[in-house]
Design a protein that fits this description.
It is a single chain. The protein has about 230 residues and is mainly alpha-helical. It has one domain. About 40% of the residues lie in helices and about 10% in strands. A 3-stranded parallel sheet has the order 3-4-5. Strand 3, helix 6 and strand 4 form a beta-alpha-beta unit. Helix 3 crosses helix 4 and helix 6 runs parallel beside helix 7. The chain is globular, with a radius of gyration of 17 Å. It starts with a helix and ends in a 6-residue tail after the last helix.
């Protein structure tokens, strides 16, 4: 699960300007959709390509990875598309990067995509969509998660955790393992706390590192737990 820290590692440092807070919600979304693709052109998919290369070469036989983001950009999807896969690799569960909070990517048909959500939105702003529903319905049956550069601090993301809490006693996610990667120690503590509130029986591991540093080190904790081969 990728948050803003992964985008920053790709050189996408842009954030919504504070002065834009005065705009009505739909105007604000329109402005984000206009400027973010331009800012993406200044970024690089190199760290994501290195990440995908590691998964391709090192993933233990029989395991698959699913990629989810709360970011609006589609740099990770671009990195996957640039691989030129002729068929879905055995280590990848889906070539589609699931966007929980919407995306600025424009496809011929965006009717099934998650709605565009702002950090300032209340949790009730999230409505059902094919993309988010499919991601959620898979997520609750999963057991191991890696969270990169996010804290689940805004209300829209806390709403997602509240939904997970409702099923935590009955499904595998309630007893899941979470690995948090973040360069900021306080952010690591915060995301662990937020996950523990939602899923009190889960296990957690904190990795204080920038995403690009962790990837260059070949994600050692994933080797330690047997996800990646040494």
């Amino acid at each position: 699960m990728f948050g803003r820290g992964a985008s920053v590692a790709s050189g996408l440092n842009w954030t919504v300007p504070k002065e834009w807070e005065r705009y009505d919600r739909e105007i604000l979304i329109s402005k984000i959709r206009e400027i973010l693709p331009i800012e993406m052109q200044k970024a690089s998919t190199a760290v994501y390509k290195k990440f995908l290369s590691l998964l391709s070469r090192k993933t233990r036989s029989g395991l698959k990875h699913r990629l989810i983001t709360t970011n609006w950009d589609f740099l990770l999807q671009k990195a996957i598309d640039e691989q030129g896969f002729k068929q879905l690799p055995v280590w990848l569960d889906d070539s589609w990067v699931f966007h929980f909070n919407g995306t600025v990517e424009n496809l011929p048909d965006n009717s099934h995509r998650s709605p565009f959500l702002l950090e300032s939105d209340p949790a009730s702003q999230r409505v059902a969509s094919v993309e988010a529903n499919e991601a959620y319905n898979r997520l609750i049956w999963d057991f191991r998660f890696v969270v990169v550069g996010m804290s689940f601090e805004c209300q829209i993301d806390k709403g997602l955790l509240a939904d997970l809490n409702k099923v935590e006693d009955d499904l595998p996610i309630g007893f899941s393992e979470w690995i948090f990667v973040n360069s900021n120690q306080n952010a690591l503590k915060q995301v662990e706390q937020n996950i523990k509130i939602a899923l009190p029986k889960c296990k957690t591991v904190k990795v204080q590192a920038y995403f690009e540093e962790w990837v260059m080190a070949e994600m050692p904790v994933l080797k330690e737990i047997g996800v990646l081969n040494t």
